[in-house]
Amino acid sequence: MDYVYGPGRNHLFVPGPVNIPEQVLRAMNRNNEDYRSPAVPALTKTLLEDVKKIFKTTSGTLFLFPTTGTGAWESALTNTLSPGDRIVSFLIGQFSLLWIDRQQRLNFKVDVIESEWGEGAKLDVLAAKLAADTDHTIKAVCIVHNETATGVTNDLSLVRRILDEYRHPALFLVDGVSSICALDFRMDDWGVGVALTGSQKALSLPTGVGIVCASPRALEASKTAKSLRVFFDWKDYLKFYNLGTYWPYTPSIQLLYGLRAALDLVFEEGLENVIARHKRLGQATRLAVEAWGLKNCTQKEEWHSDTVTAVVVPPYIDSAEIVRRAWKRYNLSLGLGLNKVAGKVFRIGHLGNLNELQLLGCLAGVEMILKDVGYPVKLGSGVAAASSYLQNNIPLIPSRI
Ligand SMILES: Cc1ncc(COP(=O)(O)O)c(C=O)c1O
């Protein structure tokens, strides 16, 4: 089937894959190149250095795998752990569930700490487990920084504090797929062992680069970890890093140039400004939801996500119908409710290269759809709440000051 175009642009508000900016699209519109020429290693070197800046690490080693977030999960686990290793993992929504499934299929013994969907990780249970684990049988603590299914952000500084309090050596493995380059993330400060993300989220690239960053301790662990790994083996990459040619197999040339352009956009705006923009987008969306009289799936303010908002609909409405209508009638793409919250929530993704007026377009669309499906919303109420907040808070565009 041919792609079904509508007039104007599709308003892409799923929480990944997100809009790709024109500058990135143009940068990727190029021929293939010989990746063994001097140009590609020179480009790669700048990418490895600059991506580390968005992870806020100077000591980490970065890997750009031709894969998705799921492959990055596997890379983080298999390079640092051995079959049978005990790990602790938090189940708070669909993506943490999927990561746990991978952990179990890779034969780790997983202590799952489960929360209601909409709640954050139960860190008191982690503390109790670490306190009891005087023999240090727990080899890793795995957490999804931002659970994309429910719009819940966990406080990673607290996880670090708990690990430190019990002087526990477990590696701290973090899924930052819907957080890194949008939310405050500090790999070195928080003593993260391995952090990972995917290119189609906050970096606003096509899917296809699984970004994995390993701390010196994680690299050390990889020397003795016995999990079977082939395609995702860090060792193969390190060999080519030492040779200065960087690639053990063919990279996507177009994605590398796209990544360069995406990073240039982030640095032009300033990483802290990018994070502040996401805070504004998150807050504006939450104000709109409140004005519509609907509930946020996220149960407490401390867990509110600035990259995705899951909106709970009244029981007489099927949230999947909202998503269907959004696409069919308004050329707006919203996120479905997944698994336990299917039919109960729809998601508004507000991450990546996105500005406030784009968000207001989405919010206006959501209001019309809510009315379409029989929810008594006052048209303009959410847009008014969001825009009065934004009008008071949007700074000048950093590159135009
Ligand atoms: C938090 C999180 N982790 C992992 C993944 C899986 O990433 P991918 O679909 O790129 O394999 C996703 C995808 O949305 C995600 O949101």
Task: Provide a concise account of the structure shown.
By secondary structure, the chain is of the alpha/beta class. The protein has helices at 22-28, 39-55, 69-80, 94-105, 123-132, 156-165, 216-222, 234-243, 253-269, 271-291, 319-330, 356-372, 381-393, and strands at residues 11-13, 61-65, 86-91, 109-114, 138-144, 146-147, 152-153, 171-175, 194-198, 210-214, 295-296, 308-312, 332-334, 345-349.
Low-confidence segments, given as residue ranges, are none
Strand coverage percent = 15-25%
Name of the CATH architecture of the largest domain: 3-Layer(aba) Sandwich
Q: How many H/I helical runs?
A: 13
User: Quick one: biggest sheet?
Assistant: 7 strands, mixed
Secondary-structure element pattern, one letter each: EHHEHEHEHEEEHEEEHHHHEEHEEHH
User: Multimeric state of these chains?
Assistant: single chain
Kindly give the count of domains.
Answer: 2
| CATH C-level label of the largest domain | Alpha Beta
Describe the strand arrangement of the main beta sheet, using strand numbers. 2-10-9-8-5-3-4
- Mean pLDDT comes to 97
| End-to-end separation | 47 Å
Rg (C-alpha, Å): 21 Å
Residues in helices, as a percent range: 40-55%
Computed structural class: alpha/beta
Query: Shape from CA axes?
Result: globular
CATH fold title of the largest domain: Aspartate Aminotransferase, domain 2
Bound ions, cofactors and other small molecules, one mention each: pyridoxal-5'-phosphate
Number of strands: 14
CATH superfamily of the largest domain: Type I PLP-dependent aspartate aminotransferase-like (Major domain)
Keywords: Aminotransferase, Pyridoxal phosphate, Transferase
Family: Belongs to the class-V pyridoxal-phosphate-dependent aminotransferase family.
Pfam families: Aminotran_5
Modified residues (N6-(pyridoxal phosphate)lysine): 201
